[in-house]
Amino acid sequence: MSGVWYISDWHLTIRLLLAALCGGLIGLEREWNHHAAGFRTHILVCIGSAAIMLLSIYGFSQFVTEENVRMDPARLAAQVISGIGFLGAGAIMRTGATVSGLTTAASIWVVAAIGLCVGAGFYYCAGLATLLVLVSLFLLNKWEKVLMRDRRHQEVTIKIFDRPGSLGRIATEFGLQGIQIANVNMTPEEKPVLGEKGEPVMELRFRLKFASGDRMVKALEGISKTGDVLSIESKWSSSQTVSRMSSPSA
């Protein structure tokens, strides 16, 4: 059989393989940067979207000759566009004032659209969309970091012994490196390990504004040497633990 409502197994195979390639290229960038949805997730989304598009166009070809039957290739594709949002929402995470995963969620959504284009045989659009997405994720990401480096905020969590002047010493180290403290939250530990003089442990969550990564490194190194710090955690630098814990004095 031939006609607009029919496709050969060879062409169907090409479309699914092309969908896997397009989705894999975008997913590889997400995987390389250790995001929630990576290489395999994007491939599966793109292949699934292409398969649904193929099903929507060619899967009901046996009903073409039936009377009172109207073919609508967009009917299943529309459900993909709305339904993929649930998968994208699962990649979005919020930690305090920081929201992450929005770009990954958007990449999942656009990969679904690319899969639909490939499934429909809209190859130029699929290829161009894949290229633009890769440019956005690779090149524009670096450009955005340079453009917004003076406006970004970073969260740093520091556990300290609650001693007089501890917070002041930490704030001084940040100030010496030109790092602005936008906000700080203080939370006492529920089951703290007491220090040498029986001091309780306090968790400090800083929201910082800085332009230079080197200055942040110097600030964290200076803070770790103050003698009050138990641990420092930051998304920007790897977690480090300072050995300051000892049994309380008698």
TrEMBL record:
Domain ACT: 155-237
Alphabetized UniProt keyword annotations: Cell membrane, Membrane, Transmembrane, Transmembrane helix
Membrane topology: Multi-pass membrane protein
A cellular component annotation (GO) from this entry: plasma membrane
Subcellular location: Cell membrane
Superkingdom of origin: Bacteria
Parts of the chain that traverse the membrane: 12-29, 41-64, 76-96, 108-141
Main localization, broad class: membrane
Pfam families, alphabetized: MgtC
Similarity annotation: Belongs to the MgtC/SapB family.
Protein name per UniProt: MgtC/SapB family protein
UniProt source species: Paenibacillus aurantius
